[in-house]
Amino acid sequence: MHYPNIMPAVFIDRPNRFCARVLLAGETENVHVKNTGRCRELLLPGAEVYLTEPETPGRKTRFDLVAVRKADGRTVNIDSQAPNRAAREWLDTQGFTRIVPEYRYGGSRIDFYMEREEKRYLMEVKGCTLEIGGVGYFPDAPTQRGVKHLKELAKARGEGFHAAIAFVIQMDGVREVRPNLSTHPGFGAALEEARSAGVRVLFLPCHVEPDSLFVTDAVWERPLR
User: Fold this and answer.
1) Could you read off the pLDDT of 139-158 as tens digits, one per residue?
2) In this structure, which CATH number among 1.20.1410.10, 3.40.1350.60, 3.80.10.10, 3.40.47.10 belongs to the domain 82-220?
């Protein structure tokens, strides 16, 4: 996926999870943060960040903050909508005969429903922006919604669906994501229950530039059958 316009700025602070203050062209600007996670290790005072200008009528802020450059030079995409867009681009290359986004199943909307050779698939997508020692971790803030999705996928396996949770890794150099037990042990427990029910775990490493994010590989924890 590619952003049609991108511009650098300098991060100042984050008054709340939806808003940040940045220095843009010498002026302080309030911008929308497209990620409700904590991102504490990324959004540090003085960090170089990247903005887009959606030009949507009626917005309270002119710009969206979508990426940040880490101290090691890598760019991390923190746009919470980007993983689904990147995952869809990847799914389009996988030979499915039907792909339905935002598929209603049970009490949830699962990110993708797919069909191939008379088999039915469900795939939930999660974006990973937290990296420690070369390993990705999810979530970086408690997510009851994520737990609910895992339970729905486990239920779907019992009803004949092939099911997977896909972690789109929104930075270069990471190929594995583990549950962040210190932040949300309940997500880790739900992931283990889903695995036991036959839900597959997929890692989608990406190449990230300030203006783009593309899946470069697909690493199945266990093969999808």
Assistant:
1) 999 999 999 999 999 999 99
2) 3.40.1350.60
